[in-house]
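Recall the central idea of this unit: under ordinary conditions, the amino acid sequence of a chain determines the structure it adopts. In this exercise we apply that idea directly, starting from the sequence alone.
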Amino acid sequence: MKIRYFDNAATTRVKEEVLKEMLPFFSEKYGNPSSMYSIGRISRRAVEEARAKVAKMINANPSEIYFTGCGSESDNTIIKGIAYANKARGRHIITSKIEHPAVLHTCQALENQGFEVTYLDVNSEGLIDIDNLRNNIKNDTILISIMFANNEIGTIEPIEDISKIARMYNIPFHTDAVQACGNVPIDVKRMGIDALSLSGHKLYAPKGIGALYVKKGIEFEKFMDGGHQERNKRAGTENVAGIVGLGKACELAEQSMSFHIRYLTELRNYFISEIKNRNFDAKLNGSLKNRLPGNANFAFREVEGENLLLKLDQRGICASAGSACTTGSAAPSHVLKAIGLSDELARGSLRITFGEDNTKEDVDYLLNSLEEILQKS
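Accordingly, the structure predicted from this sequence is:
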């Protein structure tokens, strides 16, 4: 049975060009980048070349890029790091109710340490209200952390408007851009972003590698002790092969951005229009206008999402009900609840996230399979 993969928000395959670039660093180019001899210097040079590629994709300086193990580590590093570095000045943080667990749970951990966190509401499309953000700023607010694009419903937040508010009050602005990097153009300088998290396995690089952008001048404390790697901010021998892969993936993403957006948007819009044309009893979740190109999230009425996923899997279709990081939880999605869905409707959600390997024929197979399954329900 042919596998048709529609869960690219959970992870993407490693592109052949990325794998090819990584392979030598598992064997002949195996030196530790902190070593002084030649094969160590080869690894160091590869790490710095990859750092420059990551920086170029988001228009940052290479010295502002720190390599981490994943997006969650990047979120933890910067949110806790800024909080600890500024606790004498203030202890108030602003985020939203639809953040990834890597942000929400980090903020909850800081609350247990005496910090105060405001979780902003979102509207029915998943967008925060700029006036509400402004009204919740306090004299002791030390960080605003709002995701670039939501991992479940694909809604893209008003990043430049958020950054203007943050600059007006001289508050650092961090964005979890794990879903956005590689899917939409990002310019941290033009957009006024002070810190940004990204993850390799969301843009055709391997799992186990991430990066953190921190604007020069933004102070943050490290929370991992050991060696002096990553300019003394992230101890531990670098994952050279993973870093090289991330650098290549960012280079490819920058080169193919226009095609990527156009192609995935066409697949997404076709899927959404056919759901309507075929009279599925379903509600589109998230913003249609401000949306990631490959994301389509529907809530099907009187359908159990888990059962739907199992039946799709029997037909060789990989999809999800939401974030892969919350799979196994009996509770309905916190994102879908935040945009106003009932528990019943939230449990009937289906997230389809397209990738460059998908075709229109794949989408038709998915639509036909959904029709068959729902008619028998």
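The first helix runs from residue 16 to 22.
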